[in-house]
Write a structure and sequence with these properties.
The complex is a heterodimer of chains A (263) and B (328). Chain A is of the alpha/beta class and 263 residues long. Chain A is built from 10 helices and 10 strands. In chain A, the strands form 2 sheets. A 6-stranded mixed sheet of chain A has the order 6-7-8-3-9-10, sandwiched between helices. The chains are: A alpha/beta (263), B mainly alpha (328). Chains A and B meet through α2, α3, α4 and α5 of A and α6, α7 and α8 of B.
Chain lengths: 263, 328
């Protein structure tokens, strides 16, 4: 294992009854890069995310984060290690304010317990202040500060996507898993989102991205992994993937060109 | 920006809220001095159900766990007080914290294996739980619970040499507990723990993915809610001077459920208002007693239709104490 690899899966397999959603899948994400995971609908991309974040347990294989095995940890423990995520359809806390939503990211880093919360002990007050500052900072950076007291369900869809990103970033992750961050956004929102994601590696955040929009993927990625039927079918830089006949076939179906086996 | 019309903002201004709180406290403090004995007793029951409602509100309102067996924890608190006082002669008031501990401890034991159940499934298990506790009490295990007759002869509580005996005394005892619990629960609401409870209610998967230890926090809510019911059980036993299984029926669990739904899930003032309505409604409609339940049902249905969030829903706003966050 190269030591600049921060997140890695080794032969993970996830079955649902008879269906093999993910089949001996390997991916190695290098630190401070944007790594994309693409593939047709139902290829198993979101399942890979759910296995990495501990929502599903894989039948086989290992998930390694900074060289440590994550298998068997609960989702909240995995977040505390430094892996945060967003969801394809925003799963916000709809009846809570945007500020409260963003503060959720800081929950795992808080220590205040039952009694210190009731008694408002000094260390609890300091911690609350810190949680709010962190959350407020990310709201500012994503342009959501004016919405801070609005309920999450009342803000526009594009802002909900950004809010979910703010919530994940407030967790101070080392690796951020983004599940179709530009899905459902208009062109200008898409541009804002792309600009923002592009800057994350410079701040020490490694990004693993699932995306359908090829402009986004080709524009942002350092490396692309292509999946189909739960398996890895290709991996390479955007140019390599763009010219790879196997990938073209997976997306468009078999044409008259010869089929090339990928390694 | 408001997409759902204007809220009456003047109602939420800090001075208005303080004035309202002061008026409520003044009313509650002065009430027993101008009301009849009968209405003081009614006031006591409002306080008792407010305490039970506050406990259930933690479980149902804050975390969204459907618990239709809350009367079981009330019964556990009441019987703990009754048995230990009658058999061992431990002072009734000293059993107040112990009743809470026993009810909370039992809640921990009982809920550990079922806490992962979702929605309706948990609801059904808690209904069964309430019935099991009631039937066990009727069956008089080891001659402890006195079967259908219950336990009689509970000593009056003594507070600093003052015997708590009149309706007035009990009125103040129960409302002091309500005030204490409401304060503590409000502190929790505005803390990391209270927020995490709400995250779980809103979206359990997202909460877990954001680092919330869902299982532990659900257990904490269950234990805390049951402990408050245990407190209520102690006060109830002391007031009645006897306990029997008839007091802890499924109907009582339903009433507590209604209190939380009527008042507003996760709203502390809402729960107290809900308790007041649920207790006062049958009193007001006593002249037409045979139609009481009909009116009650209609009122509930109307509330659910016109105000699905409850009569006094919780206002969501975090006071931003950190000041305007500086841009990096």
């Amino acid at each position: 294992m190269r030591n600049d690899i921060v997140l890695e899966t080794q032969g993970i397999t996830k079955r649902f009854r008879g269906l093999v959603a993910v089949d001996r899948f390997d991916i190695a994400v290098r630190a401070f890069t944007i790594h994309s995971l693409i593939g047709p609908n139902g290829a198993g991309k979101t399942t890979v995310f759910n296995v990495i974040t501990g929502i599903y347990r894989p039948e086989e294989g290992k998930v390694l984060f900074q060289g440590q095995v994550l298998n068997g940890l609960k989702p909240h423990e995995i977040l505390a290690r430094g892996i945060a995520r967003t969801f394809q359809n925003p799963r916000l806390f709809k009846n809570m304010t945007c500020l409260e939503n963003t503060m959720a990211g800081q929950h795992a880093h808080g220590r205040a317990g039952f009694w210190s919360s009731i008694l408002r002990l000094p260390h609890q007050r300091r911690e609350e202040k810190k949680i709010q500052e962190q959350a407020g900072e990310w709201l500012h950076r994503l342009g959501l500060w004016p919405f801070r007291h609005e309920l999450a369900r009342n803000i526009p869809y594009g802002c909900q996507k950004l809010l979910e990103l703010a919530r994940a970033l407030a967790a101070q992750p080392k690796v951020l898993l983004l599940d179709e961050p530009t899905c459902g956004l208009n062109e200008s929102e898409k541009a804002t989102m792309m600009n923002f994601i592009e800057g994350l590696p410079k701040e020490g955040i490694t990004v693993l991205l699932v995306e359908h929009n090829m402009n986004v993927v080709m524009g942002l990625s350092d490396l692309i992994t292509v999946m189909n039927y739960g398996k890895k079918i290709a991996e390479g830089t955007p140019e390599e993937i763009y010219n790879n006949p196997v990938v073209v076939e997976a997306y468009l179906g078999r044409g008259e060109s010869n089929v090339v086996k990928s390694g | 920006m408001r997409l759902l019309g204007k809220r009456p903002t003047w109602l939420y201004k800090q001075p208005v809220r303080w004035a309202f709180l002061a008026a409520t406290i003044a009313l509650l403090l002065s009430f027993p001095f101008w009301a009849s004995r009968y209405w003081i007793d009614v006031g006591f029951y409002v306080g008792l159900y407010a305490l039970l409602g506050l406990g259930l509100n933690v479980i149902l309102g804050e975390v969204g766990l459907f618990n239709l067996g809350h009367a079981a924890f009330w019964a556990l608190g009441a019987y703990t007080t009754a048995i230990l006082n009658v058999r061992l002669g431990i002072p009734t008031l000293a059993l107040l914290p112990l009743s809470a501990l026993v009810a909370g401890g039992c809640a921990w034991l009982i809920s550990s294996p079922i806490i992962h159940l979702r929605g309706d499934y948990l609801c059904i298990v808690t209904i069964a739980l309430g019935e099991i506790v009631r039937l066990v009490l009727i069956n008089n295990p080891a001659g402890l619970t006195g079967g259908p007759n219950g336990v009689i002869g509970i000593a009056r509580p003594v507070f600093l040499g003052h015997v708590i005996r009149t309706p007035l005394d009990f009125y103040f005892l129960v409302w002091a507990m309500v005030a204490l619990c409401a304060f503590a629960l409000r502190q929790l609401q505005r803390s990391r723990i209270g927020r995490a409870w709400n995250y779980i209610r809103e979206d359990e998967i997202a909460a877990e993915a954001m680092g919330v230890d869902v299982r532990s926090l659900k257990l904490l809510a269950f234990v805390l809610g049951a402990a408050l019911a245990g407190l209520a059980g102690n006060i109830f036993a002391a007031k009645m001077r006897m306990v029997s299984p008839d007091s802890f029926t499924f109907m009582e669990s339903c009433l507590m459920f209604c209190i939380v739904l009527l008042g507003g899930m996760g709203s502390i003032p809402g729960t107290i208002l809900g308790a007041a309505l649920v207790v006062l409604f049958p009193e007001i409609f006593r002249p037409v007693a045979q139609y009481r339940l009909l009116f009650f049902g209609l009122a509930l249905a109307a509330t659910m239709y016109f105000r699905p969030g409850g009569l006094w829903p919780r206002r969501r706003a975090v006071e931003f104490t950190a000041g305007r966050a500086a841009r990096p």
